[in-house]
Amino acid sequence: MTNILILGMTEFFIVLFAVLAYMIKYKGRVDIIAGYDEKQVRNKSGLANFVGNNLIILAVSALLVFIFELLNLSTEFLAFLVFASVIVPILGIGTFLGMRKYLVIPTPASP
Fold first, then answer.
1. Is the backbone of residue 48 left (phi > 0), alpha (psi -120 to 50) or beta?
2. What domain count does the chain have?
3. Which of 24, 52, 55, 109 has a 20 to 30 Å separation from 99 between CA atoms?
4. Is residue 109 part of a domain?
5. Cα atoms found within 13 Å of the Cα of residue 78, Cβ hemisphere only
6. Is 110 part of a structural domain of the chain?
7. Is residue 107 part of a domain?
8. Contact, 15 vs 63, CB < 8 A?
9. Cα angle at 42 between 36 and 44, to 5 degrees?
10. What is the mean pLDDT of residues 8-32?
11. Is pTM beyond 0.70 here?
12. What is the residue-averaged pLDDT of the chain?
């Protein structure tokens, strides 16, 4: 039962990241990015491309973890744990930090 649950969760992440990547990168739906504010974006297409590429990397990573889980059913939980607690946060933080080059940095008001 655990094997099916872990495999199902990994499949869900593959589909989720792939759909989000498609919507953001190819359809330009940057409005679905968390914290998106149109007034603060300098380059909307660059932001969509950057975030979409990172989501594609996450989808491919999830696919590789899924294949690894299928080949090694005894360690599928460990593989999923590494994916969910190491790969996703590292790429998420990297995406967050990389997005700053597409945002307008507000200047502080002088007193």
1. alpha
2. 1
3. 109
4. no
5. 5
6. no
7. no
8. no
9. 60
10. 93
11. yes
12. 89
